[in-house]
Design goal:
68% of the residues lie in helices and 1% in strands. It contains 11 helices and 2 strands; from the N terminus they run αααααααβαβααα. The chain has a two-stranded antiparallel sheet. The protein is elongated, with a radius of gyration of 34 Å. The chain has 287 residues and is an all-alpha fold.
């Protein structure tokens, strides 16, 4: 394969990688922007001051997604136009993003146990249930949704509703838990939260979900940990291949193309035209 063929293959590889990287950035940007604007996410993140840090993480992810979109376009322009400056800028950006991702993965691995312990304790849910559940409809609906989907009750367990605002505000709620803690919630989820739920003193223990929502969230994350790890490894491997293709393309663009036979002939003719004709002497000098 000649010089032009190799350069074309490298350009094609860089364009494919840049397109996939751009799609990834657009997905991150769109998903995090949806999380920031979504009603349920805002209600959940406003439940406790400890969750405010996730707002910062969402803003950082939105910024990173936007930068990936911008530099993805720069990388495509550099590959199509065979320009070194856009390709070098894109390569530097990829290196910075790669280092940031590696640092984030390492931080999550180191802090994984602390994260699990903090969430499994369910202190955020417990404090919210005790003081605010049933007082603010939006936040109450968030807890109901979590308890229904994860089939859990309370932060640490259904006992978190004892002496809570929801139980004390209505005599009908005495020794009760909300409908979202009941196993038959799907059939009764359109009832008002002021109605009676399930009795915690019932002899039939199958009426109430006994698992706390903190442990339920941890179990959900652990259940999907392997696919998440695979996706992260695939993204890092894709970036490494992108580094390789971009570096090779930059090297090819910096290297002058080899001279073809026609170029050699042209160069010899051009040089000959510039040189003076050799002296052949007088034809009649020997006569």
């Amino acid at each position: 394969m000649g010089f032009e063929g190799k350069a074309f293959c490298l350009k094609l590889c860089v364009l494919c990688f840049t397109f996939l990287f751009w799609v990834l950035g657009a997905a991150i940007f769109g998903f995090c922007l949806w999380l920031r604007l979504d009603f349920w996410s805002n209600e959940y993140l406003s439940m406790g001051s400890m969750l405010k840090i996730y707002y910062i993480a969402i803003y950082i992810a939105i910024a990173v997604g936007g930068l990936i979109i911008v530099f993805g376009v720069i990388g495509c322009v550099g590959a199509i136009a065979s320009r070194l400056v856009p390709l070098v800028l894109f390569l530097v950006f990829l290196v910075l993003i790669f280092l940031l991702e590696v640092a984030g993965v390492a931080y999550c691995c180191v802090m994984r146990e602390d994260f699990q312990n903090t969430i499994s304790e369910g202190e955020i849910f417990k404090a919210f249930i005790k003081d605010d559940y049933g007082r603010t409809n939006g936040k109450t609906e968030v807890i109901d949704y979590v308890q229904w989907k994860l089939q859990c009750c309370g932060g640490q367990g259904y006992n978190d509703y004892i002496d809570s605002y929801w139980m004390n505000k209505n005599e009908n709620h005495k020794d009760q838990v909300p409908l979202s803690c009941c196993r038959d919630y799907s059939a009764n989820k359109y009832r008002s939260i002021s109605n009676v739920g399930c009795s915690i003193n019932s002899q039939d223990n199958n009426l109430i979900h006994k698992r706390g929502c903190g442990n339920a969230i941890v179990n959900l994350v652990e259940k999907h940990l392997l696919p998440i790890t695979g996706i992260v490894i695939a993204i890092l491997a894709l970036q490494l291949f992108g580094f390789l293709f971009i570096v090779l393309l930059i090297c090819y663009l910096r290297k002058p193309p080899p001279q073809q036979p026609d170029d050699v002939v042209y160069e010899m003719a051009r040089t000959q035209e510039k040189a003076p004709y050799p002296t052949r002497g007088n034809t009649y000098s020997n006569l």
